[in-house]
Automatic annotation (TrEMBL):
Ranges annotated as spanning the membrane: none
Low complexity composition bias: residue spans: 248-265
Residue ranges of domain Terpene synthase N-terminal in the record: 309-380
Origin superkingdom: Eukaryota
Organism listed in the record: Nyssa sinensis
GO MF terms held by the record: terpene synthase activity
SUPFAM superfamilies: Terpenoid cyclases/Protein prenyltransferases, Terpenoid synthases
Region (Disordered): 235-267
Residue span, Retrotransposon Copia-like N-terminal domain: 19-57
Protein's name in the database: Retrotransposon Copia-like N-terminal domain-containing protein
């Protein structure tokens, strides 16, 4: 087979390879190493020595003087071979210097750059196939577990980068699928939000959203732990304020959570006191509340003003609420809701309730902004302070979303908060029905 012509140029002295090829070949980075070494060899016009396009010429050529002189040698050293050999050894040296010790030991004994190149390709072709299968299996089974979002994201990203390095890059949509699939149920709200988006979202943006959601979960956990750790759990026989504004009374014989509470325990008191709202959040010593006046010799007192004089600004000379306020439907709605916080003897709030109830019903029969009309109708059915606020959250989220100038960030946070609480209660119910109270579950499901 005829050899291809070899350029008759002086041997090239390339720049230091260590300044251009920074990766040494190991068992994990063949494609990365190859991506650096190939441009270097091409730039020096040496790649033909490793891909086989620059064939090795014959080492000897016939001596044209052999027929003229019987003593002349019949073969001479081919100058093209000498040039090829010099260049090939330079390329061989470049390749050898870019190998790690473990890989270098596997190619000891080869004599040409082409042999080294082929040996490496053969070695890593089977290795890459095994690596592909292993990495895909790891991606399909990786879970967040106890890792932070940052560590979990880097784990998934590293596995995806490994696939790209062995020639099988994944699209971002598939990486996102693996990333979200390994999250636990506490991340269901953000997972659902991402999966239901119509417009595509970048991988780095998803990472940012997950970091924000993780921080929010941590804040909820810290608040819950602080509440459990510092609050004294009291057993009460009734609520502090009934639906008709009458003062109720509470049994102050308290039981404390000794296993989890970290606050200083106060002795149990079997006496009965009106529930004024003053609790151990103000002081953990009941003596400081001046509930027993005969045992307190100081002059300090806790006083609560009822603010009755404030209502005088909104009344006419006859002591009735001014008719001009009927035009402010939203203001009347706020006053209507506040009137349901009254206790016995608060005549101003009783008048406010009568006034607002009458005029809000009248305004409902007239033209009113749609969302405001929905709020008024909802309040007239049952005041907000008589409702369970958590159960009303979804309804108010829907109403707020329809507002013309609603804050999208506030809306998103409200939805996330609702979903977190919902999933928490769902998980609690699953745990209760599965492990603790199956009979109780049967009872409550009959009423759901």
């Amino acid at each position: 087979m005829a050899s291809s012509p070899v350029p008759s140029v002086a041997p090239v002295t390339p720049p230091s390879i260590h300044s251009l090829v920074t990766i040494k070949l190991s068992s994990e980075n063949y494609l990365l190493w190859k991506a650096q070494i190939m441009p270097y060899l091409r730039g020096q016009r040496l790649f033909g020595y490793v891909d086989g396009s620059c064939l090795q010429p014959s080492q000897h050529i016939p001596n044209p003087e052999a027929d003229k002189s019987p003593t002349a040698p019949r073969l001479l050293l081919n100058p093209e071979f000498s040039h090829w050999f010099d260049q090939d050894q330079i390329v061989l040296s470049i390749l050898m210097s870019s190998l790690s010790e473990s890989i270098l030991a596997k190619v000891i004994g080869v004599t040409t750059s082409r042999e080294v190149w082929c040996a490496l390709e053969k070695m890593y072709s089977s290795h890459s196939r095994a690596r592909l299968s292993t990495t895909r299996r790891q991606l399909s089974t990786v879970t967040k577990g106890g890792m932070s979002i940052s560590d979990y994201f880097q784990t998934v990203k590293s596995l995806a980068d490994t696939l790209a390095a062995i020639g099988h890059p994944l699209p971002d949509t598939e990486i996102v699928s693996y990333l979200l699939g390994g999250l636990d149920s506490s991340y269901d709200p953000i997972v659902t939000s991402i999966q239901t988006r119509e417009d595509p979202i970048e991988l780095e943006d998803i990472f940012g959203h997950l970091l924000t959601f993780e921080l929010r979960l941590q804040q909820h956990t810290q608040v819950l732990e602080a509440t459990i750790g510092s609050a004294n759990v009291a057993t009460r026989t009734d609520y502090s304020r009934g639906p008709h504004g009458k003062t109720q009374y509470s049994n102050r014989a308290s039981s404390y959570s000794g296993s989890r509470g970290r606050a200083q325990q106060a002795p149990a008191d079997t006496n009965w006191y009106p529930d004024t709202g003053s609790t151990n959040h103000l002081t953990n010593d009941l003596q400081n509340l001046n509930l027993h006046a005969e045992t307190y010799a100081g002059s300090d007192q806790i006083q609560v003003g009822d603010g009755a004089e404030v209502f005088d600004y909104f009344k006419d000379e006859m002591g009735s609420f001014k008719a001009s306020f009927c035009e402010d439907t939203r203001g009347m709605l706020y006053l209507y809701e506040a009137s349901y916080l009254l206790v016995n003897g608060e005549s101003n709030l009783e008048l406010a309730r009568e006034f607002t109830t009458k005029h809000l019903n009248e305004n409902l029969e007239q033209d009113m902004e749609h969302n405001l009309a929905i709020l008024v109708h909802h309040a007239m059915e049952l005041p907000l302070h008589w409702r369970m606020l958590r159960l009303e959250a979804r309804w108010f989220i829907d109403i707020y979303e329809r507002r013309l100038h609603m804050n999208p960030v506030l809306l998103e946070l409200a939805k996330l908060d609702f979903n977190i609480v919902q999933i928490t209660h769902q998980n609690d119910l699953k745990y209760t029905t599965r492990y603790e109270l199956p009979m109780f579950y049967c009872d409550i499901t009959e009423h759901v």
